[in-house]
Amino acid sequence: MILRELLNSDRSAWDKITQTYLLGCFMQSWAWANFRELDGYQTFRYGLFDELNQLIGGCIFYFYPQRSAANLIFAPAAPLLPPNLETEGMRLLLNQAEKLSQGMGLYGAIALRIEPLLFKKPDWMGQDFRRSPADIMPSETLWIDLSQSEAEILAQMHPKGRYNIRLSQRYAVETIFTKEDTAIPHFYDLFYETAQRQGFLSEPYGYFIKLCQNLFRENMAEIGFAKYNGEILAAILLIYWGESCTYLYGGRSERAKQVMPVYALHWAAMQRAKQLGYRIYDFYGFSDDPTHAYYQFSRFKVKFGGKITKTIGAYDYFFYDCLADVIMRLLR
After folding, report:
1. Which residues pair with 145 in a beta bridge?
2. Where would a tag sit more exposed on the chain, N or C end, judged by fewer CB atoms within 10 A?
3. Are 265 and 251 a contacting pair, CB within 8 Å?
4. 101 and 319 in contact (C-beta within 8 Å)?
5. Which of these, 81, 89, 77, 72, lies nearest to 32 by C-alpha position?
6. pTM above 0.70, yes or no
């Protein structure tokens, strides 16, 4: 097995792997890496190849250059390691990540933070990886199984969830989905309004311009709206990848809450994803811990039923030579 940098000609093979590998995730897709580059990140794309030069695994590394003495190289939803060759593949990727860290100048990286979407810590991590103080992605989420019939999906919901969906239908709430750039400012208005009202940090408008324009072109994302009497009351941003439709961001107005526009919108999104052949509707972040930042959102999400899914979270591998250099600079 060899490791080499992925070329544009490898894109199709890489995306196929990321879509089918265990819990394949959009954050390892070629298009997502392109978007992150627009947002200021450096990306490093490496593939693992067998003796027949077939791509069998790899990783896209992300690095955000900033004037800090403790930068990290990130690998969300990665690495993707071939079966029975995990230890060898991880060794090759670690060696490459350490080389990258040494070539990043004064404000380089002191560690690699990985976040494989696995349900238990694998043997190939050994004792060298330490649990990270913060995850890159939510390690706990809520999945709706779209392989069920619509009647079965409704039946497994909380009674209040079914009631609110039917209430929105009685009010004739309209839902639409679009990949038009003109939808972005309408989405952001509701997203920003919700962030201000609920007190969470909101990404800037430019972030969504780059995200949506890039992923719309790749047929990977859509914005959904719920409207009542011609007024947009709720909006969601969906990402399509592999077998999953992921609810990534959303927002709603305080007006006409009684028509339940958010319930109408998520139910329509589930129906749409199911019709398009996706198997999972991922609510992307969940917690039943009242002290957790996701708790308030989770109280809403749980009304749709589904299965709570927990992965191992993020782990750090320290480059001790780089760490020692940082400590010496700080001491000086």
Report:
1. 280
2. C
3. no
4. yes
5. 77
6. yes
